[in-house]
């Protein structure tokens, strides 16, 4: 158990942004939300998974929508609690802990803000060990936990509760409502009991995010290579370094979809749906979902989200092995390249 | 108080189909649903509005979607109760009565089926006195009653509860979910207390539907003019008689939208969004929403829904004055021609 205060947020947001593989929302907006909530309500208590009682009611709180929208349409700051309260009303019991559904700029920070606002402790972990675009793409799906009831709340005061026959259906219905709500809503769903956390979460990812963010900051301060520091913390492999020469991006169906083309020693193409899902070097596939394809600013080591990718930016792409549960047959069916329509199988990352 | 059994359904469905102004869903499908429910669960008790206790919890049950879809995708028959139960769960109390939200082929029959299944009495009236395409277009909106919580249930077992900041927002969010659910769902919303029924309902419209359907049937049996019989029961005016020469129809945004062109003594054009909303004779407007524009088969007096309109059909169009509350400024803002994008004001029907 430890406290998260304002001082931890910079490193944590930076690291979460890197782990968010291009998605999860702008870390800066997330940091502001968490900072404001901690300023008002005080620091948040962070528990290891092992410290959470077996009968706890652990509620993931997240933002759903297209990160491109978040850049222009800021949250009201009331959505997280509105979603939590709507979920609790149908559950018939109160949340005892908050947890991130994924790591990613905004989606690691929103749970901190929600925990501060609700006066609840936070669990150190998340349900993906990275960021994925769709609501059913969580480890709890692999162990048969329903992601409904799923409560959505927008900035205007509308709420909506989905009770679906499958986790895919919840995504479909929630996404359609999310688009109508302005493509930027808060979500409370995929409730876990304390004794489901070991199987349903990747442990200690908030701490990993903080360690990662700190390593980048310290390397920069020491005039060392921040990207190399991040790669080392993550046990990742450098895939490419180059300049962004083209970005094709559209906000459609409730997602930010597109491609980015890099030029350096050869050419490199990234395909994304909120998150980077496929990387090709000179036409050959070098990394696929569910492994993490992280894009960093080559100079600063800061995460580059897909919506911030722009012509001329010098970036380095690193690949990081995903949680091994994602490379099981069921994991790949849920979040492997074929689910996203890419005609290729998952292939493990090249060795470093 | 009286009983509705299988024997009443034919007349009631026919009359409701006429009052549905082209929308409200295929009367035949609706009749089958109500017949099956009554066969299994027994007749339904129908109460006049004045007989309902002031503290009653009266729940409108309806189908939402595009009538064109209903022709090919039959309901499972489980949706009504699923929507009702989902609504009751968030209300925290049980419905005491069921009522139709509108008159129209399916939407007058679904409440009968729901009442039979739930073992609840039915109220003789509806919230429009006709059929309208959107969920906020109900008299309860005019007296400040919220249409949320709104519960939706599909044939697959998904349910969804909307809690919106306005009745328009509920329509928007519910419709988006409805489209994902297959464009054919059951809805429980716009809960009324017993003492709100006088202001929130048009009274005795199920009885009117039955009277109307009976008049058509008896005229036909007597080799009299069934369309004239219907016009007389409704106090309506004949607008045109002719042959359908063109139909332009698309299912989009959760609605059946389009136009139908008739030829006879001149030309006549009907514009619809689920329901007929505007009628032009030789280019001049002769009837507009919220007045009822009813299309009947000229030979049989049977209602012709927009989805059944086809080349060669001989039809007669009659105009019927709407409930006077709809022609108030607030009523016209909610359901007048300008709301639907027509650049004209409401004009009362020509005198008979």
TrEMBL record, chains A, B:
Domain (S-Me-THD-like C-terminal): residue spans on this chain: 166-349
Domain S-Me-THD N-terminal per the UniProt entry, residue ranges: 8-163
SUPFAM superfamilies assigned to the protein according to its UniProt record, in alphabetical order: CV3147-like
InterPro entries: S-Me-THD-like_C, S-Me-THD_C_sf, S-Me-THD_N, S-Me-THD_N_sf
Superkingdom to which the source organism belongs: Bacteria
Protein name as it appears in the record: DUF917 domain-containing protein
Species per Swiss-Prot/TrEMBL record: Nonomuraea dietziae
């Amino acid at each position: 158990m430890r406290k998260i205060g304002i001082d931890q947020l910079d490193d944590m947001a930076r690291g979460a942004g890197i782990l968010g593989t291009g998605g999860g929302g702008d870390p800066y907006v997330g940091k502001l939300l968490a900072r404001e909530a901690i300023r008002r309500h005080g620091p948040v208590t962070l528990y290891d998974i092992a410290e959470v009682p077996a009968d706890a009611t652990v509620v993931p709180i997240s933002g759903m929508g297209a990160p491109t929208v978040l850049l222009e349409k800021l949250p009201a700051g009331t959505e997280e609690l509105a979603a939590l309260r709507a979920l609790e009303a149908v559950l018939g019991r109160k949340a005892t802990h908050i947890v991130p559904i994924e790591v990613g700029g905004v989606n690691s920070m929103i749970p901190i803000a929600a925990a501060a606002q609700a006066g609840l402790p936070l669990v150190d972990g998340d349900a993906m060990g990275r960021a994925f675009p769709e609501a059913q793409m969580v480890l709890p799906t692999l162990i048969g936990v329903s992601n409904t009831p799923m409560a959505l709340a927008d900035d205007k005061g509308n709420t909506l509760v989905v009770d679906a026959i499958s986790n895919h259906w919840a995504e479909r219905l929630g996404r359609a409502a999310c688009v109508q709500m302005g493509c930027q809503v808060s979500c409370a769903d995929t409730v876990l009991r304390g004794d489901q956390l070991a199987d349903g979460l990747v442990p200690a990812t908030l701490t990993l995010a903080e360690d990662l963010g700190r390593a980048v900051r310290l390397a920069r301060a020491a005039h060392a290579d921040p990207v190399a520091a991040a790669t080392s913390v993550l046990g990742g492999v450098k895939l490419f370094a180059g300049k962004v020469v083209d970005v094709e991006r559209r906000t459609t169906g409730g997602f930010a979809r597109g491609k980015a083309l890099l030029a350096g020693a050869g050419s490199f193409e990234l395909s994304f749906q909120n998150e980077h899902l496929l990387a090709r070097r000179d036409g050959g596939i070098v990394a696929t979902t569910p492994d993490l394809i992280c894009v960093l600013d080559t100079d600063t080591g800061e995460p580059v989200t897909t919506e911030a990718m722009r012509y001329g930016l010098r970036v380095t792409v690193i690949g990081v092995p995903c949680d091994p549960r994602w490379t099981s047959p069921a994991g790949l069916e849920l979040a492997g390249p074929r689910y996203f329509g890419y005609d290729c199988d998952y292939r493990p990352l090249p060795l470093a």
